[in-house]
Structures are given as C-alpha cells and as structure tokens.
Design brief:
Layout lengths: L4 E4 L3 H12 L4 E4 L4 H8 L8 E2 L3 H6 L6 E4 L5 H10 L8 E4 L5 H13 L3 E8 L1 H7 L2 E6 L4 H11 L14 E2 L2 H30 L4 H11 L7 H11 L21 H12 L4 H14 L1 H10 L11 H34 L5 H7 L10 H11 L10 H24 L4 H13 L6 H12 L33
Parallel strand pairs: 1-2, 1-4, 2-3, 4-5, 5-6, 7-8
Antiparallel strand pairs: 6-7
The structure holds 6-phosphogluconic acid (6PG).
The site of 6-phosphogluconic acid (6PG) has 13 residues, from α8 and α11.
Length: 482
C-alpha cells in the first residue's frame, strides 16, 4: 500500500504534523534533507507508528499514491524553491506540492503559476499553532491551485483544529497566495495582541506596582472575560512561572524582542494598499525599539528616565486597563479585516471574512472566543467595512471608551510607553471624525508644490490651485494619488 502524503522537513512543526496525520489514519512518508534525521525520527517519536521513512526524494516520490501529495515543512524562502526544483523532474502531471511554511504570499502566487505551467498543482498553506497545534490540531489556511483542494482537503481538515461546534479550522481560502496572505495577517494580529498584553503588563508592574502573583491572578481572571484567548492564558502562566530560585523567570529575560518578518510584511502590505493598519505596524516598531537595548540604556540615563507611580484605587485601574485592552484589540482586528478586504478586492480573491475568522477560532496562536463574535458579525453582515460598527463590538467600544482614554492618558502622563493602545484610540478618533485637519495639509501641498486641492463647496473630482504668494505661476502639478 502506497503512502497518502509525503512530508519533507523534520523540524518541530514537520514531525508533529506527521504524527498528527498518522493518528488520523493517513500513511505518511517522511523525508529530511539531513538524512540521519529520518532514522532518528523513525527510531524516536515515530517508533511504533505507521510512518515510513524515505532516504531520497526519488524514494519518497516512488512510495506515494498518485496524484502525489507532498508537503514542505521547511524554512520559508530559497529552501522551498530548492526543493520544488528538485521535486519537479521526479513528479507526474497533476501531482500536488503543499508549502506549509510561513511563505511571503507573493512567493506563493509565483509558485502557483510557475508550477501550473508544468502541470503541477501548488498549495500555499499557512499553518498556525506552534508545536502543540501541529501535533493536536493546527489552524490551516490553504490557497493556490484550487484543483488540488479535493485531494488535500480530507487530510488537512482531519488534522486541523475544530471549533466548539465541530467545524474544522481549515478551509479553502482563495487562489494564488491568498492562504499565505491570510496567515501573514494572522501573524500581524498576533504581534498586535502580544504587544497590547505587554503594555498592560508594564502598566500594572511599573505604574500600579503590582507583583507577579497579583498579575498572574489578574490575567487568569481576564481569561474568563471577553478577553478569553490563548495568548492571555499563556501570559497568566508565564507571569506565575518561577525559576529554580523561586523567582519569576520572566523578570530575568532580556527585554529585546526578535521577529522573523511576518509582522513587517503585514505592515508593508498595508502601506502598499493604503490601509491604516496602525496598531499592528506600531507593534512591529515596538519590537524594533526593544531591540535597541544599548541605545535605550544610554538615552535613559541622558534623560534621567523614570516612571511616575500611578495613584488611586488599583482595582479600578485594573478594570480600566482591561477595558482599554479589549477596545484596542477590537481596533486591531478591525484594521486587520480592513486590510484583508482591500487585498481581496485588489487581487480579486473573493475572500470570505466570516470564514477567515472561523479559521482562527481554534488551533492558532490568536485563537479566542472573540473570533467567534467576529465570525458572527461577518455572517450577519458580509459587507461590514469596519468591525467596530457591528452592534456587539460597537457597544463594547462605547462602554470602554472612558476607561480607555483614562488609561492611555495616564500612561503618557507617567511615562509608560503604550504605542498600541494609544495608536488604537487615535485611530478611532480620526476614523470617527467627519472633518480632519487634512484641509490644511492640502493647502500646504498646494502652496509649495501646486499639488491642487478639492473644495468643500464644489463637487468631488474638481481640482483647484491657488497662487498663495502671488509669486508662483498658475501652472498646477498633475493630480494623481498612489
Ligand atoms: C503561528 C506563529 C508562527 C511563529 C511566528 C513567530 O502562527 O504558529 O505565528 O508562525 O511562531 O513565525 O513569529 P516571530 O518570530 O516573528 O515572532
């Protein structure tokens, strides 16, 4: 009997996905570039299972049922292209290659087209959930060549996480790089959620002077509110975790954040599409600031940086902080879905926003009860442009607004950096303003560069130029927007 699927790459995600597929009754052929890892796996974690090893790509291909399905679980970028070029000569028409890594979505679009020309079907599938998700049920976001979907669907949906209603957190996203695009936005939202939590932690620790036991308890309580989510849950665990000396381990971790690029890509994409993805982009910059450790230490001394303790009832502040976090989170997801909508229209992907929220409901890093509410919002109104306009989310924002203003203003007053919570409220203030000061900005552009402006008392699309100084000419520059 031949194998149902081949998996290349036996790092942590690859191994766990294979074990998951094996549990679900699929016969998996495993391969790794460093061949010794295949035997280590077969004699280790895969011992006693139906998993079979291959010691060359030819052997892997020979052992698979047609049309062959081969999933790459290797480092994103060149390594994927290398494996694809080695595999193509060994494959037959209609075989399927799935990339389960964190590819940049334009690469998946390119691979879909290049491989289609060779008769091979390509699927770019975002996989989220870390080691545990891969082993017991990740969220999977497949896109690319839709002809492949009926063949890979039974396997991917079987291994995926399920919602409380039993729906798989894996469904066809769209053509080309749509699957990896949705995974990229997932990661951007992950960056935003993590930074928001970090801001709340610093407010509690440096502003309110709470200790780790108190913060552990607060996050545990928050996890029983609308904030119920994996990231809040692990934060409670982390804050309660003691090292070998009985002291909080997190306090001893160097405060410089790493990043592998998916958050940055999300920000770049938002700039390209003209979407104000302010919160996620701020969260990427917050990691950049954190990485400048030496510079921060020096300027901290130069400016004699201190944080003023926050006065007042701590319990009331903690509740205000929870509300500020919740409202900011709504803005982050609202901005994320604005980006998804714009990309969908731009690339003609016809993405389904409610189904996207469903994909993230379980299994992935941003999984939360909240995503169930987002799904409901888009099911009720698929044309919803701003998530905050949905009645459920609007009510929360309105109820949280006073506390949110109080917390962000206090953070600024006391010297606690809050790039994400403040950018979120600033976005809402701008987005709900019928009139912004951009009239002055247009006047400035026209003044120095004859860039023209539209008038409030004339129809849209009619452009005017004024000779502001009496010295310039009457020639206006061409009117175009990127
Ligand atoms: C997931 C994670 C996963 C990975 C990130 C980490 O969805 O399972 O997002 O993809 O942990 O790439 O990203 P950074 O290293 O950029 O924080």
């Amino acid at each position: 009997m031949k194998g149902d699927i081949g998996v290349i790459g036996l790092a942590v995600m690859g191994q766990n996905l294979i074990l998951n597929m094996n549990d679900k009754g699929f016969k998996v052929i495993a391969f790794n570039r460093t061949i010794s890892k295949v035997d280590d796996f077969l004699n280790g974690a895969a011992k006693g299972t139906n998993i079979i090893g291959a010691h060359s790509l030819q052997e892997l291909v020979d052992k698979l049922e047609k049309p062959r399905k081969i999933m790459l679980m290797v480092r994103a970028g060149e390594v994927v292209d290398d494996f694809i070029s080695q595999l193509v000569p060994l494959l037959d028409k209609d075989d399927i290659i799935i990339d389960g890594g964190n590819a940049n979505f334009p690469d998946s679009t390119r691979r879909t087209h290049e491989l289609a020309e060779k008769g091979i079907r390509f699927v770019g599938a975002g996989v989220s959930g870390g080691e545990e998700g891969a082993r017991h049920g990740p969220s999977i976001m497949p896109g690319g060549n839709e002809e492949a979907w009926p063949y890979v669907k039974p396997i991917l949906q079987a291994i995926a996480a399920k919602t409380p209603e039993g729906e798989p957190c894996c469904n066809w996203v769209g053509r080309d790089g749509a699957g990896h695009f949705v995974k990229m936005v997932h990661n951007g939202i992950e960056y935003g959620d993590m930074q928001l939590i970090c801001e709340a932690y610093q407010f509690m620790k440096d502003g309110l002077g709470l200790d780790y036991q108190q913060m552990h308890e607060i996050f545990s309580i928050w996890n029983r509110t609308e904030l119920d989510s994996y990231l809040i849950e692990i934060t409670a665990d982390i804050l309660g975790f003691k090292d070998e000396n009985g002291e909080p381990l997190v306090e001893k971790i160097l405060d410089t954040a790493g990043q592998k690029g998916t958050g940055k890509w999300t920000g770049i994409n938002a700039l390209d599409l003209g979407i104000p993805l302010t919160l996620i982009t701020e969260s990427v910059f917050a990691r950049c600031v954190s990485a400048l450790k030496e510079q921060r230490t020096q300027t901290g001394k130069l400016f004699n940086k201190t944080i003023k303790p926050i006065e007042g009832n701590k319990t009331e502040w903690v509740e205000a902080l929870r509300e500020a976090l919740l409202a900011s989170k709504i803005i982050s997801y609202a901005q994320g879905f604005m980006l998804i909508r714009e990309a969908s229209e731009n690339h003609d992907w016809a993405l389904n926003y409610g189904k996207t929220a469903l994909l993230w409901r379980e299994g992935c890093i941003i999984r939360s009860a909240f995503l169930g509410n987002i799904r409901d919002a888009y099911e009720t109104n698929p044309d919803l442009v701003f998530l905050g306009a949905d009645p459920y989310f609007k009510e929360i924002i309105e109820n949280c607004l006073d506390a949110w203003r109080k917390v962000t203003a206090k953070a600024i007053e006391c010297g606690i950096p809050m790039p994400c919570m403040t950018s979120a409220i600033t976005f809402l203030d701008g987005y709900t303003s019928e009139r912004l000061p951009a009239n002055l900005l247009q006047a400035q552009r026209d003044y120095f560069g004859a860039h023209t402006y539209e008038r409030t008392d004339k129809p849209r699309g009619e452009f005017f130029h004024t000779n502001w100084t009496g010295k310039g000419g009457d020639t206006a520059s061409t009117t175009y927007d990127i």
